[in-house]
Design brief:
By secondary structure, this protein is an alpha+beta fold. The protein has five helices and eight strands. It has a five-stranded mixed sheet with strand order 1-2-3-4-5. Strands 6-7-8 form a three-stranded antiparallel sheet. The longest helix has 18 residues. The protein is globular and about 60 Å long.
């Protein structure tokens, strides 16, 4: 329908791990980068039941990381977006250098928070659904943010 079958695949399900500094790196899988009508598209496939709102698309951390990683891997993409498989819908957004600066700032803040004795386990149904530590997590069980003392191995209200 879009004519994408005439595109040239540049990357498909490609894993990356790129160091930012000692003990801090970005890693993930870029689903698809293609060249179509002289433009490079970075596409992340989604199987969500619903298409996300524009505001969520604009602030999507995953797309910011993929945008940055694609540049590090030698692909300056023109269009970046999510393709919702259930809806056959492709929605695009923009990323800039400021997007990646914000991404680095967030990563450094998270790294700093993990170096503290107490780590915030910030309960949210969105974040927690992917976590493999739910059964051991008091924040998940109590459905509220809690601090975890990583040296004493207990949760603090």
């Amino acid at each position: 329908e879009r004519g994408w079958d005439d595109s040239e695949t540049l990357m498909l399900e490609t894993y990356f791990r790129i160091p930012l500094k000692d003990n801090l790196q970005f890693s993930g899988y870029i689903d698809f980068i293609m060249k179509f009508e002289d433009e490079l598209y970075l596409i992340d496939w989604k199987s969500n039941k619903e298409i996300i709102p524009d505001e969520e698309l604009k602030t999507n951390i995953q797309l910011s990381m993929y945008y940055w990683a694609s540049k590090q891997l030698g692909h300056k993409v023109d269009k970046i977006g999510l393709y919702f498989l259930r809806h056959s819908e492709f929605i695009t957004t923009d990323r800039t250098e400021d997007s990646t600066l914000s991404l680095f700032k967030d990563a450094l803040e998270i790294e700093t928070s993990f170096s503290k004795d107490e780590i915030l386990a910030n309960y949210s149904s969105l974040n927690c659904k992917w976590c493999s530590f739910k059964e051991e997590c008091s924040a998940w069980k109590n459905k509220k943010p809690m601090y975890f003392n990583k040296y004493e191995n207990y949760f603090i209200m």
